[in-house]
Amino acid sequence: MKNIRFTSILLLMSLGMFAQNTLTYRNNSLAAGDSSAYREIQFVEPGNDGPNQIWDFSKVQYSGKSLPSVLQPASNLKTAGVSEYNVLLKDNGYDYFMNSNVNMLEERGYVNTEKKMTLNYSDPVIKMKYPFSYGDQFTDPFTGVAFFNGDYRIDFSGTNTVTADAYGTLIMPDMVIKNVLRVKSVKKGLQINKCGTTEINIVKYFWYAPGFRYPVMNIGIVENRYSGGAPEITKTAYTNTTQHNDGNTTAGATTPGSQVETSDVSVIVFPNPFREKLTYNYFLRKQLPVSIDVYDMSGKYSVRLVKNQIQTEGLHTGELDALTHVLAPGVYYIRFTFDKQVVVNKIVKI
């Protein structure tokens, strides 16, 4: 009876298998009427690509600056000579003319009144295709013409490559967000004008989380090289975790609260199922005593990996070696005890 009772508790506490986020038109397309305020943070390196990443941005500092972003329906389909757009994105002084449909998101041009600049794409740049999951990639060529002060012409062309290059857990100063999909875009272009040429390389990273329509974080690196000279590099980083959720997520999709943790710990185990070795990562927001144990389906103790060890704030990692601990194929539970908080994951040895 004791073993049955313990197994029932474990089942109630076990976390679901890692769910990979997929971008869809319904959940992640631009929605006219939305507005956001992106908070600027100090620049941080974007981290590694690949599966089961932990991006630890818990120490980033906010600059105090905020950039508003507003989406409006297209009121005039011939604005600035751009046709076939249906959403106007007002962001950081620019009006971007966007075409959003069930298959893709296109940028068809933009206007910056203060800088007296207009840009029209004869071949628009595709920003996103739907659906989009980890490992998906596309490259899209683009061409267009820009004008400065109404008459100074700049011809440009290039390619935009978009890749869903990673997924994992995003650790922010005030929350931990799981099942995050990172999308990387690389826009390479050449501008030609009467004074010379400019090579442009724009690399951006976007972190998308279940239940959030827009990226919860983005990092950008812009490199301009004028007529073969030394590059001029600009780096930026922003977060957007307070965005409004309009309820248009599909059935079964998560809400922001269900994937966001504000507790003192966050745990990931992978791969799962595993053959030889299981890796576990956990993040502590403060110093805590830690114990890690493995039990079989009946609740019988199998392996003690860590016993009441005081560990410091930060990211910790370890491995469960099935050969060393003589684990037969089957279902087990790995139990993490962080002071008085317990997290249990179901794991499968194959």
Question: How would you describe this protein?
Answer:
The protein is mainly beta and 350 residues long. Helix content is 6%, strand content 59%. The chain has three helices and 22 strands. A hairpin with a 2-residue loop joins β21 and β22 (341-349).
Q: Which terms would index this structure?
A:
disordered N terminus; 3 helices; Immunoglobulin-like; five-stranded mixed beta sheet; twelve-stranded antiparallel barrel; 6% helix; 350 residues; mainly beta
Explain briefly what this protein structure is.
The chain is 6% helix and 59% strand. By secondary structure, the protein is mainly beta.
Order of strands across the main sheet: 2-4-5-6-7-8-9-10-11-12-13-14
Q: Structural class, judged by helices and strands?
A: mainly beta
Q: Pick out the low-confidence regions.
A: 1-18, 246-258
Q: What Rg do the Cα atoms give?
A: 24 Å
> What portion of the residues fall into strands of 2 or more residues?
over 45%
How many strands?
Answer: 22
Average the pLDDT over all residues and give the rounded result: 85
Q: Can you summarize the main beta sheet?
A: 12 strands, antiparallel, barrel
The DSSP helix count reads 3
Q: How is the secondary structure organized here?
A:
Blueprint: H1 2-13, E1 14-15, H2 25-28, E2 35-41, E3 50-56, E4 62-73, E5 87-91, E6 94-100, E7 104-112, E8 117-129, E9 137-148, E10 152-171, E11 176-193, E12 196-208, E13 217-226, E14 231-239, H3 256-259, E15 260-261, E16 265-270, E17 277-284, E18 288-296, E19 301-311, E20 314-321, E21 330-338, E22 341-349
Parallel strand pairs: 1-22, 3-10
Antiparallel strand pairs: 2-4, 2-14, 4-5, 5-6, 6-7, 7-8, 8-9, 9-10, 10-11, 11-12, 11-15, 12-13, 13-14, 16-17, 17-20, 18-19, 18-21, 21-22
